[in-house]
Structure formats: C-alpha cells, structure tokens
Amino acid sequence: MKSTILNLLLILHAANAFAQTQWNGSTDSDWTNPANWSAGVPDANDDVRIPAGGISPIIGSGVNAAARSVQVESDAWLTISSEAVLTISANAAYTTPFAFTAGVNNDGKIDNNGTLVAGTTNAGDFGIINQKTFNNNATGIVRIDGSANTALYNAAGTWTNANKLIIGQNASVGLHGIWNDAIFNNNAGAEIAIGNSTLRALVNNADESKSIHATFNNAAAINIGAAADAGTVGIRNLATFYNNAGGSVKIDRTTDIGLYNAAGIFTNAGAIVVGGKTSPGTHGVVNEGVFEQEGGASLWIDRATGSSLYHAAGTFNNASQLWIGISFSGGATGIESRAAFTNNPGGQIEIARTTDVGLYHIAGTFTNNSNILLGNSNDIGQYGLRNTGEFKNNAGANIYIDKSSVAGLLQTNADAPAPGANFTNAGNLKIGSLSGVGVDGLENQGSFTNTGKITIDRATGILLKTPSGIFTNEAEITIGGAVTLVGPEILATYGMVNRSTFTNHGAGHIRIDRSKDTGLYHSAGTFINDAKLTIGANTSPGINGIFNEAAFNNEDNGDIRIDGSTIAAIRNFQNTFTNAGNITTGAISYTGDFGIRNQATFLNNTGGTVNLEWSHDGIRSEGVFENGGTVKIGGPGKITLLLTRQGGSFNNNTGGVFRGTGTINPSSLTSNGGTLSPGYSPGKLTFSNSHNFTNSIMAIEVNGVSAAGTDYDQVAVTGVATLGGTLAVTINYTPVIGDEITIVGATSVLGTFSSVTGLGPGWKVLYESNVVKLHFDDPMPVTLVSFNARIENTIVKLEWRTTSETDNAGFYVERSADAFHWSDIGFVDGNATTSVVKDYTFRDEKPLAGRSYYRLRQTDFDGTNERSRVAAIRFGGPEHSVTVWADASHQLHIRSSEAVERVTVYDLSGRIMKTSKASILNLSEAASGIVLVRVSTSGGTVVKKVMLY
Which fold does the domain 784-875 belong to in CATH? Predict the structure, then answer.
C-alpha cells in the first residue's frame, strides 16, 4: 500500500515538475482564464505550448504570468499587455530545427508591451530563440539571464525592439548576448544593454553555405559591457549592420576587440563609443570587411591597449568624426591599416595619447580627402604617421602632426616581397606646427611625391630626411618657418639631409630657415634642383646654407638663393656641384666667411649664373672651380676678397664671365679664355699681385669719365699686368675730343691686347708703363683691322690689313725688346686715300733673340701719328739659356750660356734696386716678394720674375 502511494506521489511530482499546458482559446483571449488551457492556467513549473488557430492569448495589464518555458508555434500569436509581466523560470528541450533548450521558443509572433523575464534560474541554451516575429514594443521590457549559450538567438524572421532589451544584468548569459541570423531592428527610443557574456556580446552572422545573411538595424542605444564584462568581443559583424542616424553604440569591458567587423558591411551613421568607461581590450575596432562611416556619424575609441582601430582587410571609408585617444589612452597605435582606407570629404580623424604610432598604414592604399589631426591635443608616441604602403593626401585635404617623440612622419619600405612605400601629397601636410615632433620631422625611405604644400617645424635633429628612396617635389615645402611664440625655440640641427635621390622641379619651391648647423646637407645620392630653393631668407640656416658631399645639379630652371649662414652659403666639401641655373647668395643678409667654399669640383656651366653679394670672401677655392657661365661677386662694399685659394683653382674658361667689385688674389684665378668684367655696372676689380691677362677677354663698360668704379670699369693690379687676349669695350655715353679714361692701372704694364672690340671711330688705346687708357680724338685716318707677327725661317714677317685710308703717308715699323723702349726698324708707304682693302707686309731680317715686340706708327701727310696695338713674338734667343733664382739668404744667381753683359733688378713699381755685371747679386736688404730681373747677354735681353722668400 505504502508502495502504491509512494509511486503515486512520485508520478504526481514528476507530472507537476514537467507539467505541460496548451492554449486552446476556447473561451476568450484571457491568459488567466483556466478554460482557455488544456491543464489550467500555467505557473512556473509549466511548459507552455501555444499553437496556431482560434483566439490568441493576451496577458492582460497588471497580470503577473509565469511559466517554466513558452513555445509559440508557427502562425500563433502571443501578446503581453502594458504593465503585464511574464516570467520564464527555466527551459524546455526542442529538436526542430536542431536540438536545443530554450526559455522562449517563438516560431510565430510575440508582441510584448509589458515585461518578459527569461532565465530566473536556468534559461537553457537560449533564453529566447526567435524564428518568426518578435515585437518588443514601446512599453515593452525584455530581460534575459542564465542562458548557457546565447541569451537571445534571432534565428529567423524579424526581431524589433522599440524599448528595453536587457541581457545579462543579473547572471551570465553564456557565450553570446545576442546572435542574429535574420533581421534585427533596434528602433528609435529603444535600448539594448548586454553584459555577462563570455565570448561575444552581439553577433550579426552570415553563413553563405546556409543562406544566412543577417541584417542589424540600430537607430537607438546599444550598451555593451556597461555594468559587467562582455567577453572577448563586443560586436562581431559578418553580414550587414546599420547604425543609423540617432543610433548609439557603446562598448566597454571586452578583453580583445570592442567592435569586430569580420566580414560584410558595417555602416555607421550614428555614434559609436568604444572604451568610453573601461578598456575594450587589445583593439577598439577591427575591420576585415566594409566599414562605412557616413556623414554626421562619430566613432570614438579610447583605452585600447594595442591598435585602437585595426583595419586588417577590406575597405574602411570615413566621412565623419573618427576620434581616438582624445580623452584616454589611444593604445600603442591609433590606426593600424593594412588595406584600402579612405577619409572622404567631411571626415575628421583625430588621434592622440598613443604610445607608438598615431596612424600606421602598413599596406594597401590610404586616401585622405579631408582632415587628419595626429597629436593635436596630446602625445602621439614615437611617430605621428608611419607608412609602408601607398598613402595619398589629395588636393584640399589636410594632415597635421604634432607631439611625436621620434619623427612626425616616417615612410619606410616594407620587407620584401611587399611593394615599396609610396606617399603622394597634393594637399596640405603640416608637421610640428603646434609643438615638437621629436628628432626628425619627415623621414622618407620610399617614394614621396609632393604636388601640394608641406610645412615642417620643431624637430631637434632633421626636419626633412631622405636616407633612401626617392623624393620628388613639384610644389611648396617650407622648413623651419614657424616662430615659437610660447616656450623655448626648437631648432633642428639640419633643415634637410639627403642621402638618396631628391628632385625639386616644375613649380617646386623649397624654403629652409631656422637650423643650427646646415640648411641643406646633401651627403649621398643625387640632388637635382630645377626649381626654386630658398635658404635663410627669414632666419639663419646655421653654419652652412648648403653642405654638399655628393652629386648636386642645379639645372637650367634652378634658382638657389641663400642668406644668413654664419660660415658659408655653399660648402662643396666633396664630389661635384654642377650649376646651369641661377645661384644667389647674400642678397638679403650676410652669409659669413664665404659665398662659396669649394673643396672639390664646382662646375658653373654655360648658362649658369652665380651671384655672390654679401660675405667676407666671395669664392674660396680649395678644389677645382670651372666657370663656363657667369660669376658675379661683390655688391659695393659687401665682399672683401672676391677670390681666394688654398691649393685650389678657379678656371675662367672660354664662354665664362667673371664679374666683380673688390679684390682678387691673382693666384686664385686662371684665365682660360673667359671674360673678366669689373664691377656691378660699372665697378673696379683689384688684383692684389701680378696677373697675366693674355688668355682672357677684358670687358670694360664706360658710362662717363668722372670716377673709376662709378662711371667706368677699371682693373687695378698691384704688380705687373701682362696684357694679351681681347679688350671688349662698351661705350654708353657721348664722348668729346680729349676724353681719356684709365681702364688698367698697375705697378707695371707689359704687352698689349691682341685685339680690341667695341671702340668706334675716334677711340684709341694708349699703352703706358703703368696704365692703359682709352683716348678719344678725331677719328683715325686709317682703319686697321689686323696686325700680326710670325716667324719665317730666320726672319720675322709682319702682316697687316686696312679697310680704308685717308691721307695716309705710310707706316713706321717699331720694335722693342722689353715693350718699354722702342726703335724704328723700317717704313712702308701707305695708299694715301682709299676705301679698298689693302694688305701690307714687312720683313725683319735681323730679329732680336728672345721675345720681341712690334707695333706700327701710322703717319699722315701732315705729320700726325697714330700707333697700333702690339704684336709679340719669341725668336730663338737666350730665353731658354738664362736661368735666374734666389736662395734663402736673398742671393740672386744667374746662369747663362752667353756672357752676361748687364743685370738690372727692378721692384714691381719699376724702381731700379740694383745693377751689376756679376752672375751673383746680394739682395739681402731687399724685402720678401717678387722682383723683376733684366739680363742682357751677347745673345739678347730677357726679363725674369723671381720670388724672394
């Protein structure tokens, strides 16, 4: 009996523990009417089944309904009224469409206007699984706790939330808060709160093999991890996720990723805040699909420990506000991008408080069409922007970089086989405009092209650095232009350092100011300038304007202007500096000791112009300076020494022009057929010692007769001026008879010009012992167009030509051994008056040995005389058989193959110091310097220059 009772109790308890009641709606829609149920009104121990057909159940307002589980079958409908409560205490097991347990299984329709609580004890695998339609309406509240896998599984159909959906507030909900395989709408005014998930708070899923492609529409609030941990990932999207205008997503308390767009499309038109209260873990946002940040949206990321925004693959398009690290830590890297990233018009990216890199673009193409601010409000780590991929800052776009500790912008090539890094700037790139950016401003090791505007300031080492790669500039680069208004001035050691290939061309204009050592240090590779390069126009560039150690080419359109250096505007330390354009130094301010200090090879080619206006020395040559263009040195009173040398040379070659006002060390200048032009229209060129002008063109400009250096050009030589070559005269005033202009002044003048150009009728050149003058008189009666001397066997033959003659009686032929003392050696009759070309010859049958000088003295019938230029020739003689030298005690030694008849020693002023017939002369009382020694032997007379040390 007892056994029978016990068995009965067990059967009754079991039936009660797993009791089922089914809605039949036989009477009305009232949930609380027992007549509507197969086994009475359900309680917390009943599994409720609501089938389709008949009257649908309604839990009325104020009713506290309960069930162990609820199943709404296909086409069935459950309504929970406002202020009604349905509490689900546990779960039931199902086998369709797969095996699972759930607190609520909806395969029909549920309209919730009250409160639905699932999982007060154990909600099963899913707190709620929706397979058709679930509407949590404007007064509805859904609370889910205690699930083992997922709190809310939207497996099919549509879930619409118009009020509150609270998940995991009181207990763990298993792996996921929400898993969406269908359509999920979080409408305006609603709120979703998720916590206590262990893997992912929200999954918006896609599985093409099962034809699953979910859509999540958010127009309200989604709060993840606000009160409790949300697991590894806050949101994982693989399908289509819309955070619409008015939508707000807040994610905290994840351990790895706040928002993970693993695939599909994530569109944000609202507001997203990741890490606003607590850390989202390693990354705030990770994108591997398509992420669209639309106009009016905002994405705010803080407190990530790795990369706040890790764009690993796919496409990221930003057209609104993207803020990283503005309030709290921005992680190690603000944005790490490995794929296509576009900041569209309207986009504003601001990154601060990173420890390593603000924006690190590793691969793919990063395109900026709007604004990027890195380190604007706080420190940005080692680098503001680092690029190893392709980066485009397009026209109209802006990038601002501040507060880095190593470099503002670093571009390096990725490891092979990745393609080389490429940065194209057509917009505005500002580095260090507000505060310091560390050691270097911009370092390029890839390919960098600028067609926009770059401004670099406030680095301590190098403002623009190209250790490798290629840098091409076609627009504006301003280096060191900013003035520090608050705090100490930050000056870089170098404005630019190039060790690779740098080209400035087209509309390029590089401006460099405010460096401590050198404005532009070209240490290796090739620097090609075919545009504007301005150094020190506003503030000193330091010791040197340009310090060159490699191939430097200033091309035809190149215009280099340097001011404010403290030692040298240009120091060519090694390799070759080639100029075919324009170089101007010292036009605004003093450039220190040297305009150009050349220690290697400097080529000023045809068409090249060098203007050195203000420094102590114009050019200091310690190497080889080849001039085939124009070199203009010495604004009035601004350069002390035009040319100096220390073991080097300045070669003024054919086609080259050397102009200047000031003093030249003659040993610095080698005339190889070039032109010497005194002054700055006009001016005076002074040689501090003797100089040979035989292989040069002396260009003299005459604008008047009043003062040398002001009204006319003049060459002054402290020593012997040995003439030859061409005198090219330009007369720019109307002369009167008797005008006389001294164009060459020297201690002693030897020889004459081999040709004279530019003199009109009435002008003639007068050669005296220490000056050369231009004299204007009545026009000459004879036009002499050539006069030459040449050796024929044992004679010297003189030949000359006239093109017109007036009353010409003839020509006296004069000869001199020293160009001082002349004697007549013959006479040739003239042709009276004629306009026909006439050729004349004269034979010197007994020429002097050694160097001889010949000239013509043309004589009119009235006795008027006019002298020609001088022709010089060497005829055998003792020149090669006479040797003169001085020893350390100023003893003068003479060795000759012929008997010495007389020795005369002159100083450079022409004063006789000593005469003798001996071969050794004591000059111990003479000062150190150059003396002239005239030696007469039985074979002739020679003049030698000897240095007394």
Answer: Immunoglobulin-like (2.60.40)
